[in-house]
Design a protein that fits this description.
With 216 residues, the protein is of the alpha/beta class. It has one domain: Class I glutamine amidotransferase (GATase) domain (Rossmann fold, 3-Layer(aba) Sandwich). The protein is 21% helix and 26% strand. The strands form two sheets. The chain has a nine-stranded mixed beta sheet, with helices on both faces. The protein has a two-stranded antiparallel ribbon with strand order 5-8. Strand 10 (177-181) and strand 11 form a beta hairpin. The protein is globular. It starts with a strand and ends with a helix.
Length: 216
């Protein structure tokens, strides 16, 4: 298995993800956002951070980086794409996932551990979890309030696209959404950081199961 981590100006979780991918046998390579070609990989990760300083809207400028054309083509071929935090914002800005991530309800940056519920396991990202399982994963965001119109929300529910929900919604997200996937289940965006809970000595290992599932 091979993976790529896309690095934007302002990414700050790219090395964290690289370390976890390497530790779980996903053989990561780092790809600069201005590259126009993507190596042959099974998984692409858009890491957390503040691409382009979050100017305009979080992820809006990164969505137009040259490499994103290749990321979209990779996803359309059925390749796996994982967007974490700012990566989730980029996925919505490119249209790979529906909805938008708005400013947190109380207009404050949030950085703490939260509890998530695993809503579906029929994805390559969650197949090592159990449906209904509660996991602890950190968040660190200012624009994590998921919003979509009523038709989109119904579609997400009807097509089992809501992957993770918050038990104690920290940011005002509709339907307590913490992570969603596309209809084909090969693209996942989530605001919490599974790479930050991938080793017990870092405070928890619930996130490691996601990467182990991807490597299986």
């Amino acid at each position: 298995m091979k993976s790529a981590v896309i690095v934007f100006p302002g990414s700050n979780c790219d090395r964290d993800v690289q370390t976890v991918l390497a530790a779980t046998g996903l053989n990561p390579v780092m790809v600069w956002h201005r590259d126009s070609s993507l190596p042959k990989v099974d998984l692409v990760v858009l890491p957390g951070g503040f691409s382009y300083g979050d100017y305009l809207r979080s992820g809006a400028m990164a969505a137009h980086s040259p490499i994103m054309r290749e990321v979209k083509a990779h996803a359309e071929r059925g390749g796996r794409v994982l967007g974490i935090c700012n990566g989730f914002q980029i996925l919505t800005e490119t249209g790979l996932l529906p909805g938008v991530l708005m400013r947190n309800a109380k207009l404050k940056f949030l950085c703490r551990e939260v509890q998530l519920k695993v809503e579906i396991t029929a994805t390559p990202f969650t197949r090592h979890y159990q449906k209904g399982q509660l996991i602890n994963v950190p968040i660190a965001h200012h624009d994590g309030n998921y919003f979509a119109d009523s038709d989109t929300l119904k579609s997400l529910q009807d097509n089992d696209q809501i992957v993770f929900t918050y038990l104690d919604n920290p940011n005002g997200s509709q339907l307590d959404i913490a992570g969603i996937c596309n209809k084909e289940k090969n693209v996942l965006g989530m605001m919490p950081h599974p790479e930050r809970h991938a080793e017990a000595m870092l405070g928890g290992a619930d996130g490691k199961m996601m990467f182990e599932g991807l490597a299986a």
